[in-house]
Write a structure and sequence with these properties.
This protein is α+β, with helices and mostly antiparallel strands. It has a single domain, classed as Dynein light chain 2a, cytoplasmic (Beta-Lactamase), CATH 3.30.450.30. It is built from 3 helices and 5 strands, in the order αββαβββα.
């Protein structure tokens, strides 16, 4: 009597390896998290054509800040077109108690809100270095 060994098939099951992608948007978010800790910074809005990230110390002001941010970018575009200027890279709007720095980085629009007396130069340098 001959004994036959059944051939065994070993199937290796592997789970997909998820690589965390480093995108410019992720780098920008991490830089904005650092900027948020600067003295006098109230928060920021980061948006592009597909998403938005908002981090403000006073969440009740989100809609107001979003409207003023969008309006500032629109006004910059209109002024650029009206006076035949090149692309507007940054805008600083100062109000009674608040200052807003708006910067376009690639397809991303960043608005950083800060107290009126806070210095925006360090924030602008950090964002322009990206």
């Amino acid at each position: 009597m001959n004994k036959r060994k059944k051939s065994e098939q070993i199937v290796a099951e592997t789970e997909p390896i998820v690589m965390e992608e480093t995108t410019p948007m992720n780098n920008l978010k991490s830089d904005l998290e650092e900027i948020k800790d600067y003295e006098g910074v109230i928060g920021y809005i980061l948006r592009n054509s597909t998403s938005a990230a908002i981090d403000l110390k006073d969440p009740t002001k989100i809609i107001e800040y979003a409207i003023v941010s969008s309006s500032a970018f629109d006004a910059g575009k209109e002024l650029s077109d009206l006076f035949d200027l090149d692309t507007v890279k940054s805008i600083i709007v100062e109000g009674k108690d608040l200052k807003m720095l708006c910067v376009t980085i690639d397809e991303n629009k960043v608005s950083v809100f800060m107290d009126k007396n806070a210095s925006h130069e360090k924030t602008l340098r950090k964002l322009q270095a990206l």
